[in-house]
Structure formats: C-alpha cells, structure tokens
Amino acid sequence: MIWDLAFMTNAFPRRTFLRDVAGAAALSAGAAAPAAGQSPAAVVIDPTPRFEISPWLYMQFMEPLGVTDSSVEAAWDYDRDDWRQDFVDVVKDLAPGAMRFGGLYSRHYKWREGVGPAATRPWTRNYFWGGKETNRVGTHEFVDLCRRVGAEPFYCVNFLSDGERRFLATSEGNRTGDAREAADWVSYANDPDNRERKSHGIAQPYPLKLWQLGNETSYGNQTFTREQSIAATIEFAKAMKQRDPSIQLIGWGDRGRGVADLWAGELVKQAGEYLDMVAIHLMGQSPKRPDTVLKGLAYQQEPERAWQELIELANTVETRVAEVESVLAGLGAKTGIAVTEGHLSLSPHNANPLLFEWLSAVYHARSLNIYQRHGARVKIATAADFQGNRWTVTAVMLQTPRGISYLMPAGSIARLFHKYNGKQGVDVVTTPSGLDIAASRTAGKVYLHVVNLEYRRAVEVAFAVNGMHVTGGRVFEIAPDNLRQYVNQDQPRVFHPREAVLPSGPAPAWRFPAGSVTALELDVQVG
Length: 527
Hints:
With 527 residues, the protein is an alpha/beta fold. The chain has 2 domains: 5-51 and 426-526, Sandwich (Immunoglobulin-like), CATH 2.60.40.1180; 54-420, Alpha-Beta Barrel (TIM Barrel). Helix content is 27%, strand content 26%. The protein contains 12 helices and 24 strands. The protein has helices at residues 5-10, 13-28, 71-74, 85-94, 139-149, 179-190, 195-199, 226-243, 264-271, 303-330, 361-373, 409-419, and strands at 41-52, 59-62, 76-77, 82-83, 98-101, 124-125, 132-133, 152-157, 210-213, 248-252, 277-285, 336-344, 378-380, 385-388, 394-398, 405-407, 424-430, 435-442, 445-452, 459-465, 468-478, 498-501, 509-512, 517-526. A hairpin with a 4-residue loop joins strand 17 (424-430) and strand 18. The radius of gyration is 23 Å and the shape is globular.
C-alpha cells in the first residue's frame, strides 16, 4: 500500500504526543469556554419522543471472502481452535447491535456443511471470492461469537441462489438452496426439540430472530426477475414461518440495474404480510465527479477538496433512504428498512488508504447520523464491511498472521455513536451552520451525535432542550489535530474518544474542533 511517506513520518509524532499529554483536562478547560464578547449559536432539541431506535441499528456484516480478503479464516485461531481473543475483545468493545452472515457467499452456501463435528465438515469452493472455505466457522461458531459480544445474529439464507442458474449444476454439484432447506435451518436453530441439532451435542436452541431472504437479488442480469423474486419470497416465508412464526424476515427491495422502480413497492404489495423489513445496499458509494480527487492518491495533494467530496457522497445516502421511505409510506405499510450492506467504495477497489485516515470520518459519521434520523423506518444499517485483513472498507482490521485487531475510522465512529445513544429518536429544532446532528433520549438524558463538517473552522454552540434544563453532561470527542491522521497496528487507539465534563451554567456550551466527531450525554430536568 502506497503512502505519502513524508506526511506519515513528519506530521504526527510530536503533535500527537503533546495532545495526549494534555489529555481530557485541556478539553474540559479552555476548549469549551465561549469566546470573549460573543454568544455561541444554539443547538435546540425538542425532547418529544418520535420513534423507538432499533437495537439493531448499528450492525456489522460478516462474509467469507476467500483469497480476496480472508476475513473469517483470519479471525479464527487454529491453535486455540477458537476465535482470536484480540478479535473478540475489539468486537465486544465495538458492540454491534446485530451481525449478519452471508452476502454473495449465501448464493452457494449449504448450511449443513457448517454444523456438526468440525473435523467432518467439508471444505467448499468460494465461487465469488476465490479459493476454498474450511467451514470451521459455521452456525454454532458464528452464533457463539455474537453472544460473546452482545450482538443479535442473523443469516442470509440460500435463496435459490438469487436465481443464478449456474449453481444448479457446478463441478461440485447442486449448490442451490430451496425453501425447505431454509426452513430446516430455522428448525435447527430455533426448535427446542430438533433432533439434528441435539445429535451434534447442542441441547438448547439458539434461537435466531432475524433472517434475510437472499442477497442483492436484483443486481446483475443472471438473477431473478422482480416477479420471480416475489414468488420465491412468498414460498420461502411460508415455509420458514411455519417452522417458527416468531421470526422476522427481510426481503430484497432494491432496484435492478437500468430499472427505474425499486422492487420494494411491488414486493410489499404482494408479500408484505410476510415481511418485517425490506433491504437495500449502499456499498457502491463512489465519486461521480469526472475530476474527482478520491481515486488513487490524488486526495493527498488536495485533502480539503476530498473532504468536501465525501460530504457530497454522504448526501446520496439521504436520497436513497428517503426514496425507500416514500415508497413504503405511499403504500401505508409499516415495513422497516434494512441497509444490510453499506460502505464507501473508492479506487483502488477496497484498498484506498484514505479509509485509514480521519478524512473518511465525515462520510461515515454523516451516514450514520442519516440512518438514525430516519430511524422510524431504518431498523438495521451499517457503514462498513465487518472485519478483514486487507480491505480498507472494514470496521475492524485484523493484523495477520497473529498480531492485533483494531478499529478503522468507520468502526471507531460506529462504536462511539452506538455506545452513547438513547432509546428514542428526538428532533433537532435548530442546527447551527457547519454541524450535522442526530439526537435521542432516554428518561433524564439527551444524547447528541455531532459531526463538524467544517474542514478548518471550529464551531461553538450552546445547548437548549425545550421545556427542560440542561444540568450537566459528558462529552466524548474524537478530534485529531490533523484530519489526515491515520490508524494502524502501531497506533491502534489513535481514534479512541477523549472524555470531558460539559461545563455547567445556565447555557452550557461546547466548542467542536474542525472535523471532529462527538457524542454528548446531556443531563436534563423538566422545568
């Protein structure tokens, strides 16, 4: 991976050291004081609860990626025959609300090859990403990881290979999964009396609440048509819910290439009674400007312009989410939205070093704020692939062989926002120029997720909550001195937030440094 070596070796060591020495004391002192003779702009919150924030909103997505990026295999410690402990520790700290297993891999995945004694599980070919998979990580191991880190596990089922007929007859046999195979998986996971699971030494059910029917079913020219997909959705849903009526199903609602209409509308019209959510993907977010600086290393020469382009790309997320909302609202449907894959895609594909740098933060943080502000519909969303050892689009980076695991900027922001968040979404009535804010509350606390969109300018604000007094609070801030700061195995916690106390007073205020991402916890009282 090519880096601007002069920048890397000279820009940060002394500045980072001095900032670390200053610590939280500097944050809670002069950094928050209002400028003499000036009144800061106001952030005004309406604390009226608008919707319940889904516990699965901040999810992560795991897919076996073969020789392209051995994400699953790289996370397994074969000497201990268990997940790598450094990986488990980082994911527990990240604390995703849900973890999804599948992706394109689900089109040829046979779940029975990943259960039972590990020594008897067959190796299988990875048709999309190359190489072979050991199946050492199967249903039991994935669910076990999720339980250890407090995440809700959910799977993409093999949905008749999303219509790709080549999987009916491969050199390794029929790799397509039908509705009965999916229903059998539900029984294996959820039926307390399932003989097959018990024969594998697992007495208790898991159980699994969330299931997605296929993956990217409208993408490409070899997959199902819309009508074929809807018919299969109904067939699979009936079979799976017959085994466990309590499960929640996610159907595919995005559009196909060159097709104007989203599938979500017709899907909900015909199959809405079986579905809890419709899925779209937002992992193809890439620059549209012909003179973009977000390809290759051009951003290193014009980082401020790259920052502005990343803000533009985040605006696309809002457009896509609002489009699905409009379709569902027009039908009067209560169906939720699940963004089950989503990440920033920059050239070189999945390897652009900008994603190690804080420059990328403005896209990740604004996207996550958009998802939460639309939380009345958006129930599941993600800003990155989950984990890997080569791709830069991940939330967690694995140093291999052995080594450590650490959070990428996307992961650091997801951790911050998920950890310091309320249970109910509320409105931001007034937002000063330069800031992007999502707000929530739980009883006597109001939470703000604040992104300073300004590349060079700090923004100072005071806080007001309608009908309430702000009596105090805490600030959790990621604010590198230089927005080209980067994370790697030598400085894995460089984007760990600093904590400070919000200064008290009749109008408590805070000064958000340029390019910072902050979570605030405000203590409020009625009065």
